[in-house]
Design a protein that fits this description.
By secondary structure, the chain is α/β, with parallel strands linked by helices. It is globular and about 75 Å long. Helix 1 crosses helix 15, helix 12 crosses helix 16 and helix 13 runs parallel beside helix 16. The protein contains 17 helices and 15 strands. The strands form two sheets. It has a nine-stranded mixed beta sheet, with helices on both faces. Strands 3-2-1-4-5-6 form a six-stranded parallel beta sheet, with helices on both faces. The two termini are 43 Å apart. It is 35% helix and 20% strand. The structure holds 6-O-phosphono-beta-D-glucopyranose. Belongs to the glucose-6-phosphate dehydrogenase family. It catalyses: D-glucose 6-phosphate + NADP(+) = 6-phospho-D-glucono-1,5-lactone + NADPH + H(+). Keywords: Carbohydrate metabolism, Glucose metabolism, NADP, Oxidoreductase. Its EC number is 1.1.1.49.
Length: 478
Amino acid sequence: EFQENTVITVFGASGDLAKKKTFPALFGLFREGHLSASTKIYGYARSHLSIEELKSRIRPFLKTPTEESKSKVEPFLDLISYISGPYDTNEGFIKLNDDIVKFEKDAKVEEPHRLFYLALPPSVFVDVAKQLKENVYATNGVTRIIVEKPFGHDLKSSRELQEQLAPLFKEEELFRIDHYLGKEMVKNLLNLRFGNQFLNSSWNKESIQSIQVSFKEPFGTEGRGGYFDSIGIIRDVIQNHLLQVLTLLTIEPPKSYDSESVRDEKVKLLKAIKPLDFNDLIVGQYTASEDGTKPSYLDDETVNPGSKAVTFAAIPLYIDNERWSGVPIVLRAGKALDVGKVEIRIQYKPTSPEVPSNELVIRIQPSEAIYIKLNTKQPGLSTSSTIVDLDLTYKNRFENFWIPEAYESLIRDSLRGDHSNFVRDDELDESWALFTPLLNHLESDSAPAPILYPYGSRGPKELSSFLEKHGYVFSETT
Ligand code: BG6
């Protein structure tokens, strides 16, 4: 199940991501028996921290759902050592290497297995990668590097980043995380599509009227405005997370389910998406909530005054291939909305004008669920039809299953060298190629001002008619 004496190093160990996601994910794997007690974990960052300080930062974020799991916290924390050092010169890296080599020697490791997790801002990616290659690379074993988004800011900068990393690490050594690929329902998409004949045979333009992938968050960018202002919602979640979901929803059946075949199909699909129409989309920015209790985006002092940053976007895509031509697919995402929910809605064409259409809903979060709106005769003496949900809510059906967090699932994959749920270089290129022209347009002087919507609302009020125009039929339960 796992390799013994693996060495995992978390760069950016004192930062937010490491504290909230990386260490808790490592703990989750340890707690569930997917990370050996023989593992050695190093935290590395610039800050001068004692190991006790690092542990007390991490401890509150480790999840212990059962009494028994509480007893695993300290043994897990005991696997961690901390090294402080710079990212751009070699002192810390030499020390790290000395420590790792000593650990591996004591454990009599013949083929080192080293995983480096770069929970770092992109500005230091390349420095760290260079230092790793020079000083800590396992020449007679396996080295793997996990990098976090953002992978560049547009097509050009993403290519530059790749060109700098490529001479240092082979593509098979690099794991670009898009954490949406680690979510249970996203991992389920191919099983669902290709394992059910009734879905498989109707998964096309003849049967499907429209597809929506929507991401709604009930909070704004409070505290992250400075970061978000130059990024915007399209780079933050659409170009990566939602587009990844879309590719898995729409690719052709891969030759096999190995990571390369699946990703080959994803690249083909991305290439088949028509260029985006700058005049056919909605972009928005939130204002203060109607009751005045929540701030507007521009109230954040770290945001540029008068910023046109987009906190909401609805973008229709069209795939120009045999299966999908003409089917509108709307990706939409918004911050500071009325609810927190991420879901896919596939609306079928109606069988006749008299009956409502079927709809398949795949809820990614919260509370994973799949439900199908199905026409059925009203029970009893009535002969008329009614539409009801055929409901597979995971927490009811799969009560005793451990559903790993996205990061748990992905770190486990990377430890096993499985790239299926990571983004390949050519996939990344295609995704930037698709969005860069639109981003340039939205960031030019002639950019339209985003439509304002109040914090806590459903988004710009134009949204409903926009969705209707793109083939979406609202029902009472939508
Ligand atoms: C991150 C974005 O990639 O994804 C955040 O930077 C966003 O802005 C987050 O909130 C959403 O992830 P999740 O797993 O909470 O849906």
